[in-house]
Hints:
Oligomer: single chain
Helix content: 40-55%
Distance between the termini: 25 Å
Number of helices: 2
Shape: elongated
Strand order of the largest sheet: 1-2
Amino acid sequence: MGFFDSVDISASGMTAERFKMDVIAQNIANVNTSKTVSGEPYRRHMAIVTPDYNEQKFVVPVGEFDSEEPKLQGKGVKVSGVATDPSDAKRVYDPSHPDADKDGYVLMPNVDIITEMTSMIQASRAYEANATAIESAKGMAMKALEMGSR
């Protein structure tokens, strides 16, 4: 694994976390959307992040941890899709709402602001951790260049 591999892995993590934050922002923006184009309340979305591997590149371990099985070398993560939360919509009593049924209840999105804010903080911290990893790799490369120029 080279220097740029570590930067690429952290960059893929930063891209995935930014996408997660975009999805979370969309959920927060639609917290009061009681009717979408389909006529149903907005449903919470979640980003699906999966490992990304080099398909052709195999690394065979060397040394005391030798194994007969070659292993795929990871190259970070990728966003493989967006899933919709299947949980039920919230029933809220609001007879003055234009989408209220005959009993005065409105189906509201299954978005919980506290959950979304917690997820946003988690994504933000993961983004920062990946940025720190890139800065560390850059610092090590600079130190190696300084040592090589002596």
